[in-house]
Amino acid sequence: MRRVLLGLIFVALLGVAARAQDTVRVVVRDTVTVVRRDTVTLRVVDSAAIKMLQDKLQLADEKDQFYKSILSNSGVDKTKLEADRDHYRHIVDSLQAQVRQCELDNVRKEEANKYLAQRAKDAEGKVAEATNKKKKVRAIQGIAMRFFRTPNWEVRLQPAETTGTYDKVLRNRNAGNIEFDFVTGASVMLWDLTKYFNKDHESRQIGETNIKTPELRKFDQDFAYDVGIYVGFGGSNLFKNFYVGPSFRFVDFFYLTVGFNVAEYTVLVSGYEEGHTIGASQTIDDVTAKAWLMKPFVALSIDLDFLSYIKK
What we know:
Elements: H1 2-18, E1 23-28, E2 31-36, E3 42-46, H2 47-73, H3 78-130, E4 137-146, E5 153-159, E6 166-172, E7 179-192, H4 194-198, E8 203-206, E9 209-212, E10 226-234, E11 241-250, E12 254-268, E13 277-278, H5 284-287, E14 288-303, H6 304-310
């Protein structure tokens, strides 16, 4: 502060010296009078004001000395203060880095939320497609129980009545009357029974008898029911193994189908049956042929839209 005041006084003196050519200095006791030659204006600088400035400079020096003495007597370690300053600066830098990382994490989360929102929207679309009760045609897949086993004919050698000779006997390796098949097809809705199965059934008066229809609703929500026609395929050769029949849809996604299986089988030609003996020169191809047969079946299937939904 003292240096600033001295500088100001020095600049003022330089200005006075610069204008010395145009002024006349007159000193009378404690008063300095400056008279400009081109004007009649007088500027008087009181020596008491200069004394006041000098007192202020001295007071500022005393304050500086006082603060320095307090700092030196307090025992404060300047090195420790600088170390603490560096420590807190490091903390501030760490906090700024954490803030930046949080901002990056927020951006990532926003992008992830957008992706999840899109997936949720797609899932809602799949659910709406799977639970669409008014859809007329539905692809279904399931297991069919056919009441006829696919014949597997072979020729076996059995000892003949004559010692040392053998007879060629026809045998079917697939015994039994039931066979399971994996079927895929489509059900076309003919009659919608949803309202009937989801309404409350009350007693009805039929003649003199009060008959109460059975309670059909077993769930807390409404499910779709309908009757339709089913056409499907089964086995390894889809174009030689057809399933046709009426289907009943229940609880939205399940189908019960009863009908006929029309398929191509290998059967024995006329005149031959299982257990018959064929000639020594004959083979299995000589006594078998391909034929289309119609056999009953029953199947339980599930909606493919529902299967694709639960896989997610």
